[in-house]
Amino acid sequence: MNDRPVYSAAVIGCGTGGMLSVRALAASERFRLVAACDLRADVRDKLAAEYPGIRTYADHRELLADVSAAAGTDHAIDVVCVSTYAPTHEEIALAALATRPRGLLVEKPLGDTAAAGRRIVDAVTRSGTPLAVPHGLLARPTSLEILRRVRAGDIGEVRLVEIECAGWDIINAGIHWFQYAVNLLVADPFAGVLATCDTSSRTFRDGMRVETEAVTYAWTRGGARVVLHSGDHVAQSRPGKDTLFRVVGTDGLVEFWGWENGYRIVAGSGPADVGPFPDADRSPHQVHLEELARQIDEGSPGHGPGHSPDHSPDYTVADTSLRALELCEAAYLSHRHRCVVTFPLSEFVLPEFVPPGASDWDPGTPYPGEGGGRDGRRLEAR
Ligand SMILES: NC(=O)c1ccc[n+]([C@@H]2O[C@H](COP(=O)([O-])OP(=O)(O)OC[C@H]3O[C@@H](n4cnc5c(N)ncnc54)[C@H](O)[C@@H]3O)[C@@H](O)[C@H]2O)c1
């Protein structure tokens, strides 16, 4: 029997990502879905038909005005989920936070820029509100088992993380893969990124202009490499696998395929195919939301044994999501300015920082013997 508190919840933006929260809230005994909003009337009609009794709104402002009005009453909304496109997350998440919810979910990417994401995380942290950022790879048995095995040293020290991701881009899907890479290399901060994008198809996705195809190459202070080949169409190294994740260590390697249930490991005792595992009984969004509920429980005065009045929420997932967002932004900045982008990213994007200007230097063409430049046979030490 569920004797734990049940939290009322509302979802803002009910497209693909928002419906993952809607379904998770409806499936969980920790939550009661009470309200949802979407700009589109057809989405609202579908929600009203599927979840009779919930209140629907056409705009986040209307919903949040009601949330504010209900604060402190029996109709208070405890948890707000922000599932619109990344460029609107900052405005909506900060407005949601101003209603003083007991917990907040903000979809990845936290913002369209790392600075926007940072402002959300800073404000949430200052308020002490528990925050969920639903990165699926941190809530799925396959990727969690790989993380555990890599951290236990089963393939030695991670030296290379290679990702192929077709049908997607750096900011919308790459953020998941980078966030996982940050977790694999957790004690080894990123030092730099060099990336280039083909933009010929003028592709946009999820409210962002994105690449047709791109290669992002990132390296850590400890010398590990992360390479992401992303884009509308990406040549597959394993036929049939649109997403491939290969983690190469000093003593072996692991390969898995994004959201599939199983992996291949080549380690001490030779190659082994592990899985496929049966589907988990909870979706990744439900796992993240129930962890949010647990953190709200812990911070609630008088809630059961183990309650600590000064308990701080755990912002680890939000922090690693921000580090991943920095990698995404660094990749796009590297392409935009045709240069290496180094960390901390905040220094690179300072107003007074001047990125290298457009250059007429055309590598791969003969050097005419005049016109300046640097003699690459006489490099000075850095
Ligand atoms: N964590 C995950 O696994 C996962 C999966 C899918 C999408 N997402 C994320 O969810 C977010 C949304 O992407 P999507 O794929 O759901 O896009 P989508 O186009 O399917 O849905 C976005 C919805 O938000 C609505 N909307 C936009 N602004 C609004 C506002 N001010 N008020 C109310 N509704 C508003 C739109 O009408 C639309 O229905 C993105 O950040 C995306 O990266 C996360």
Automatic annotation (TrEMBL):
<dbReference type="InterPro" id="IPR050463">
    <property type="entry name" value="Gfo/Idh/MocA_oxidrdct_glycsds"/>
</dbReference>
<dbReference type="GO" id="GO:0016491">
    <property type="term" value="F:oxidoreductase activity"/>
</dbReference>
<feature type="region of interest" description="Disordered">
    <location>
        <begin position="296"/>
        <end position="316"/>
    </location>
</feature>
<dbReference type="InterPro" id="IPR036291">
    <property type="entry name" value="NAD(P)-bd_dom_sf"/>
</dbReference>
<feature type="compositionally biased region" description="Basic and acidic residues">
    <location>
        <begin position="372"/>
        <end position="382"/>
    </location>
</feature>
<feature type="transmembrane region" description="Helical">
    <location>
        <begin position="6"/>
        <end position="26"/>
    </location>
</feature>
<keyword id="KW-1133">Transmembrane helix</keyword>
<keyword id="KW-0812">Transmembrane</keyword>
<keyword id="KW-0472">Membrane</keyword>
<dbReference type="Pfam" id="PF01408">
    <property type="entry name" value="GFO_IDH_MocA"/>
</dbReference>
<dbReference type="InterPro" id="IPR000683">
    <property type="entry name" value="Gfo/Idh/MocA-like_OxRdtase_N"/>
</dbReference>
<feature type="domain" description="Gfo/Idh/MocA-like oxidoreductase N-terminal">
    <location>
        <begin position="9"/>
        <end position="133"/>
    </location>
</feature>
<feature type="region of interest" description="Disordered">
    <location>
        <begin position="356"/>
        <end position="382"/>
    </location>
</feature>
<protein>
    <submittedName>
        <fullName>Putative dehydrogenase</fullName>
    </submittedName>
</protein>
<dbReference type="GO" id="GO:0000166">
    <property type="term" value="F:nucleotide binding"/>
</dbReference>
<keyword id="KW-0560">Oxidoreductase</keyword>
